[in-house]
Amino acid sequence: MNVNTLIENYKQMYHAFKSRYDRFIIGYSYKTNYIPLLCQEMYKLGAYAEVVSRLEYDFAIKIGVDPKKIIFNGPLKSQDDINYALKNESIINLDSFYEIDFVKSYAFNHPNSIVKIGLRVNFDITEDSITQLADGFEMSRFGICEENGDLKRAIDLLESVTNIKIVGLHGHFSTTGRRIESYKRITQELCHFVKKYKLNHIEYIDIGGGISGNVPKSLREYSPTFDEYGEAICAVMNHEFSHYANPPALILEPGISMVGNVFEFVSKVVGIKNIKENCFVLVDGSVHNIKPTFNKKKLPINFLRQHHEEKQVTENFHIVGYTCLEKDYLIYDAVAELPKIGDYILFQNVGAYTIVYNPPFIKERPAIIGIDNQKIFEVRKKETIKQFFNEEIYCFGKQEIRL
């Protein structure tokens, strides 16, 4: 974990938007990577905590985040979750009608409180009859649908309670291309809904996350810069709200663009073998550690060799992991000087989702080391068998449950 890279990512993004629209908030997406030190560093920089579960919400509180700087999203919130977050004056974006019922119940039980709430909106972002959603989905399953009238019905239900105020609209979509045009469209639609439904208490427009960051070309041929995103999105906000005495804040919820290039994974070569015409390099890591979605993209890699051959010969080989899964390929068709047993391979750009998706499967979780201005420190210890099989969770032997 490179703390300096994390700080630089934050500063670049913040300046790109803040210089174009003054009321700008970064809400770091905890689900992307919730290493405690990382989240604490983000909070020190000024980022809000964007969480999607009570587990993540409680974690943010545990590491010292001001509850007023927590953005509570996600499709599954209980009555207790909502009561707790409202009491703490956190930002909450509702995803479904059952959550609206919970908010109304809270408002009725706290008649002297002003209950501020946001709504996640579902609308069509198709362009030229082509879906922009990740994995080719035709529609998003999240949020409250505008097209079928549900958004209006939700607004009417909330506004029927005198001490509830709708103060925000949220529009997060997982897109394939992370295109500037998609984010400009999302921003425009949310601004349009503010005026269409006369939301006079609006305090923020939250366009979600998913924008590209400093991504190498081997992973994405074209990746817009923070400035290019900022120019397009902030132009919409300025056009729509420049005449407001108190324009709403613009909230962005980055994940991968904050942490993707902050982490590297180092794995040791433990074996080399040939099967037919294919060469396999076995390492003591797994695809789970670097690409938990099992995509076939080639991450940038460096070889840390014990010895360099005077006459280097480039070969084609696969880098494979320690699991018993046939698909445990860290890299397909690597082209380089063949490493030797005892060499190390460094995989770059592994900061997004790897930590949170990495399952307790076959081997323990590895340690994580941090670097900050040449100082090296421990971020996470290597997992032990006692932690892998946590005796507070696992039962060794039969323990009768009395009904």
Automatic annotation (TrEMBL):
This is Diaminopimelate decarboxylase. Keywords: Pyridoxal phosphate. It holds the Pfam family Orn_Arg_deC_N. Its cofactor is pyridoxal 5'-phosphate. Coiled coil: none annotated. The lineage of its organism: Bacteria, Bacillati, Bacillota, Bacilli, Bacillales. SUPFAM superfamilies: Alanine racemase C-terminal domain-like, PLP-binding barrel. Residues 12-259 form the Orn/DAP/Arg decarboxylase 2 N-terminal domain. Transmembrane segments: none annotated. InterPro entries: Ala_racemase/Decarboxylase_C, De-COase2_N, PLP-binding_barrel.
